[in-house]
Write a structure and sequence with these properties.
Elements (H helix, E strand, L loop, with lengths): L1 E5 L6 E6 L4 E6 L17 E3 L5 E3 L23 H15 L27 H17 L17 H17 L2 H13 L16 H12 L7 H8 L23 H4 L1 H11 L3 H17 E2 L4 E2 L19 H14 L10 H17 L22 H16 L5 H16 L28 H20 L3
Antiparallel strand pairs: 1-2, 2-3, 3-4, 4-5, 6-7
Length: 467
């Protein structure tokens, strides 16, 4: 469905397309305040909630510099009356104005600009997760060089997907998910990854091996992993103090791929040296890439000191998603008496506060956490990691439910709006290392994994709240 709106305050003409119950995208624009590379059919986003409330997030910071998380000023391109007319016409035409349940959510009984804290049922969440997982199984990602589906992969992309499948299995104990997990692990003979450019990424698949081992311990499940970690071969954690570079530099993504595997391996074997490897790696990367003012990480040292056109720092959403999601996977397995435990916990809480402050009104986050206008479209992979990590903190009673539950509910609601009827998760930034544009159709397996992680914690959350 397409609606046209002529600005009442000038000659800007914008065409809006309804892409889902929550996302309305201008497919033509004349917004010269947005970076030139974002001036395309996906340049800005207006959110329409289940009650047909419109939230305008195509905003321009016309004032002095603002800190990360401060509410941006609303761009007054569109007269509010025109927006109300637009919203009404969309609602009438699409039936979105009806009261009643929306897929993945409970009923919203009244029109309100405030988020309703009525949670979905665990059955609703699981049903949606199954649809997303089924789509991903049937549609493996394609090799960018050949264009062919990648059937055989245990490296970071598919391994991240399977961290989500494992989380879903742990919370549902569904036999078909157990079979899916074992099929993948056995297909690869429980071997470490084969990457040579990013050695820390080789350990990503080990998270799933170890989670299954901790449930059904058989030495064959972790033998190859443990042998490689202890081998002293180039790039292994036992080879040298600094083994976790990517192309000669540290990068924050590695704080998801390797540390959770090492801490779980220590738990599985009782060997303290794996905790030593993990702590040494983690705090070395932290010391090089963490910004103490913003409580975010730079993706790597290339972005330290860089600024956007609006003079803002560059904190990649998915990069910080990797980090805080990694913390939610380290802390459950790290002994509280370990010298690093309190330090990890403090970092998690600081990042949680910063992440919550950078959330946009639609519940999602943008590609650059410090400058939402650099790429104004929602970005679902980082958003899913944030939803997962914050929901985990509430479930563990590390974060205040009073403060963070509204953030998580909005985030899950936004993520549900990114799921196509087919089960494909859209608005995913492609493989990269810095903020980039997204669109409704962009998807990838690592984002599916993050979505399943978020859904797994949502199931726990709604169960604890009586649904």
């Amino acid at each position: 469905m397409v609606r046209h709106l002529q600005s009442l305050s000038g000659n800007t003409s914008v065409v809006f397309e309804v892409l889902s119950p929550y996302i309305v995208v201008p497919i033509m624009d004349d917004l010269d305040e947005v970076d030139n590379h974002a001036l395309n059919r996906d340049a800005a986003t207006i959110m329409l909630d289940a009650s047909c409330m419109v939230t305008v997030e195509i905003s321009v910071d016309r004032g002095p510099s603002q800190q990360v998380g401060e509410r941006r000023s609303v761009m007054k391109i569109f007269h509010i009356c025109a927006l109300i007319i637009l919203a009404s016409s969309i609602c009438v035409g699409s039936g979105l104005g009806r009261s009643g349940p929306v897929s993945g959510f409970g009923e919203f009984s009244e029109v309100s600009s405030e988020i309703h804290l009525e949670l979905p049922s665990s059955e609703q969440v699981e049903t949606l997760m199954r649809r997303v997982n089924a789509f991903q199984l049937a549609n493996p990602y394609k090799d960018p060089k050949t264009g062919q589906p990648v059937e055989y992969d245990r490296n970071w992309i598919r391994a991240t997907y399977y961290t989500g499948v494992a989380a879903m299995y742990l919370v549902t104990r569904a036999p078909d998910l157990r079979r899916q997990l074992f099929d993948w692990c056995e297909k690869h003979d429980w071997q470490v990854g084969s990457e040579t450019y990013s050695m820390a990424n080789r350990l990503t698949c080990g998270q799933t091996y170890l989670q299954l081992y901790l449930l059904e311990p058989k030495q064959s499940m972790i033998r190859s992993l443990q042998e490689w970690v202890d081998s002293g071969l180039p790039g292994s954690p036992s080879s040298q103090d600094v083994w976790y570079f990517e192309g000669g530099r540290m990068w924050c993504d590695s704080l998801y791929t390797a540390p959770p595997t090492l801490v779980m391996l220590a738990k599985a074997t009782g060997e303290k040296r794996y905790l030593d490897y993990m702590n040494r790696m983690y705090w070395d990367v932290y010391s090089h890439l963490y910004d103490r003012e913003a409580d975010f990480f730079y993706r790597d040292d290339r972005f330290i000191g860089q600024r956007t056109k609006r003079g803002k720092k560059i904190f990649w959403s998915r990069g910080n998603g990797w980090v805080i999601a990694g913390l939610a996977r380290i802390l459950p397995h790290l002994p509280r008496e370990n010298k690093g435990y309190q330090r990890f916990l403090a970092l998690y809480r600081k990042m949680a506060e910063a992440v919550a402050g950078a959330q946009e009104a639609d519940g999602l986050w943008r590609s650059n956490l410090a400058d939402a206008l650099q790429f104004p479209n929602p970005e679902s992979s980082g958003s899913a990691f944030f939803c997962y990590a914050l929901a985990w903190g509430i479930n563990q009673r590390i974060l205040s439910a009073e403060v963070y539950l509204p953030v998580v509910v909005k985030a899950w609601r936004g993520l549900v709006g990114c799921v196509h009827e087919s089960g494909k998760l859209g608005w995913v930034q492609p493989v990269g290392a810095n903020p980039e544009a997204t669109n409704y159709d962009s998807t990838h397996e690592y984002a599916t994994g993050a979505f399943l992680l978020a859904g797994s914690e949502m199931i726990k959350l709604v169960r604890s709240h009586g649904r």
